[in-house]
Structure prediction request, 901 residues.
Amino acid sequence: MQATGWGALPMLAVMLPVLAMVVALPLGARRAERLTLAMLPAGLALAIGTAVAVQVGGAPVVHLLGHWSPPLGLAFRADGLAAAMLLTAAVVIGAVAIFARADFGTKAGQPERREAFAFWPLLLAVWSAINLAVVANDLFTLYVALELLTFAAMPLVCLDGSRTTMEAALRYLMFALLGSVLYLLGVALIYGACGTLDITLLARMAPDQPAVILAIVLMTVGLLAKTALLPLHLWLPPAHAGAPAAASAVLSALVIKGSFVLLLRLWFGVMAGQPMPGAAQILAGLGAAAILLGSVAALREARLKLLVAYSTVAQIGYLFLMFPLLASVAADSQVAAMAWSGGAVQAVSHAFAKAAMFLAAGIMAARFGHDRIVELGGAGRAMPVTLLTFGLAGLSLMGVPPSGGFAAKWLLLSAAIGAGQWWWALVVLGGGLLTGGYVYRVLASGLRAGEGAPDPAPIAWQRDGVALGLAVISVVLGFLPLAAFGLVQVGRLGVLP
Amino acid sequence: MIADLLLAAAIAAVATGSVLARRAFTAVALFIAYGLLLSLAWVRLAAPDVAMTEAAIGAGLSGVLLLGAVRRLGPHADAPANLPPGLLLTALIGIGCAGVAAALGAAILWLPEPAPTLAPQVAAALPTTGLGNAVTGVLMSFRGLDTLLEAAVVVLAVIAVWSLAPDGGWGSAPGARQPVVGRGPLSLLARMLPPIGIVVAAHILWVGADAPGGKFQAAAILAAMWLLPWLAGLATPPRIAAPWLRMAVVAGPVLFIVVGLAGAAVEGAFLAYPPGWAKPLIKSIEVVLTASIAVALALLVMGPPEPDAPR
Amino acid sequence: MSATIFGLLGAALVGIGLFGMLVRVSGVLRLLSFNVLGGGIFLVFGVVARRGAGAGLAGDPVPQALVLTGIVVAFAATTLAVALLLRLGRDGE
Prediction:
């Protein structure tokens, strides 16, 4: 593998947030907050720069750490998917940071508070970990990225310090640690069988030893536990619903996507030469079950934040519909390209929509002092922008045109029909209807005239603004011409020249 | 061969005992034995660097941490959080785990011959770093990024553990206040060992460039030298609000990242050391990183700040 | 020969640790099982390293270095879990 021009961009996109996270500790809460805000434009510029370099060059951007090339050394390799995730992370982290100032800000002269001390470095840690997880090309470096994600996400879950959230955090930690060790075991086996951990080199080797097959099975199970695909989703609803709104947004939008991208790298990078259509059908079957059961749970849920969390369980399911479609057709076929784009756009548009939804739910819960859905009457009058945000994000999750969610679901649906696996198309359609059901429940309740409606006191416009902005992005993604999604095709490992 | 079989049987036995122990205290005691025996296995596998780390961190620091946890939890340590699985489910899980172990064993037996290895490449590239210890070369040069990120993980863990502080204690000293132990072996060790330990740690760090040893082993020993007087009630940890303490935790990782970025600016790649500068730069990073990791490891064992600790 | 023995031991330790993590319900015992499992995985790395001896080195230094990193990360994870368990135990009093 050769280093390419502009390789410093993804390298800095990883290392600057790491440096900021480390420096935040001695700086203390107030200066850490300012440092985070100062990092936002830099991180966004680096992500845009990487995306432009990948798109214009039509090839992945590669940086060789210390000039050592794999297998001895380590490489950062930003392909189109990585660039799209870098952009997503930069925008979502930026919005969440602005949103969170009201909760975790420190005024001049105010003593440091525990939550404020922890929140900013944890946010920076999530940012650096997700960036690392999408650009690192070495399976062990990716293990460290997964641990960074876990160590940052777990304290975010229980930042409020209540017993309930601590229990949710412990359960999450146990799932995540089990997932990590299963993944690490796979790393050991792959090194033993192949003598390298570089994904690109492994893809060229097309390994088929029993040790590698066993490794992929173990790693897949471990990563599914971290991605919370049903039936390994039990930790997610209490953890994502119990966290403060800003943290929930990051957890649902970004953290679970790190292990998902890694799964794609394993299945369609390392194993690109050995498609596993049977196992892929099982993954998609679990995904379909997640869509149906998660949506039904959301439909029956009485609490708003838990409803949004169950919606995440369901939306994760869509991500796995691409697996059998990619595994059953030639990697360079039109159907495979559609399935790949569909999955990538689903990951990105869900990130924006779900972050918007959690922020909106947080604003409502803060104003009402509770998040019981049936008692949200009057929200439409008191906080129309917030309810609009929730509705727009809901449209994208449902897959109503034109929205990012529609583009994702349309691509998956077309790929399913193109691959002759029409049953997955039915799942996509059915899931959309159920999503419509639970989004409607919230909107209908919010639009009723309510007794416990709060005073129409103004909400900090930044909070409503960033939440609305994220929801608008999740919709506007659907206005992009399909050619714009060509970015995520760049550098797909299955179609290496 | 016979010795290896006996050692393996002993390790499997203490592991089983630790996992199945009825009382948490027994389980932890067996776990410490497990760590020590494992380090012997590492010697047999010709990996002295790992053997030292396993003994220092896997058995030593983990043992202190877990024994402290069992003591503070008291009866809670044994109390199940929820109902244990029924007999049938336990049997099924047991069969499943045995299946995983069997598949794994078979996969290991079937690993390709000759084994793929990077040893020749490491040996060929090592002279450019000026180091004699191949493991240190991998950690600080070829895969320096992993080591740097791991140092960041340790800082993040300190932040995460502190974030679990109970209300009312923010800024105070970490961990529970330890009762003063006037006499007995702990007190004696706490007074006698630290000077010796610090010298040993410095030696291990210094020779780590060329012989087995290095920053993790040295850091673990240094951390233990701080933890011993703390456990004996002879030393009070500083308040976590103390700026110097926070600086100490991050100094090593910050230096490492700054050197890495300087490499990107000067040599065109992150963590590229200019020719001839590799060894002095690596030694400098290692010295500062050892101090930072030592402080961080000790803080991780002590735990979050507590309201009842002295303010 | 040593490599084979310890390789099989590593596989057995993974099974034992996994069983403990899934069956034990007390937090401390689950955490111990996690560490037993981790020890088994590191041993697999060690066996891979030993098999790769060559070029004057008694073992492939790359997997050995990975284990050093892994041990420190696993320890950090253990301290996090202990801090959580202590908080939950303390609140339960």
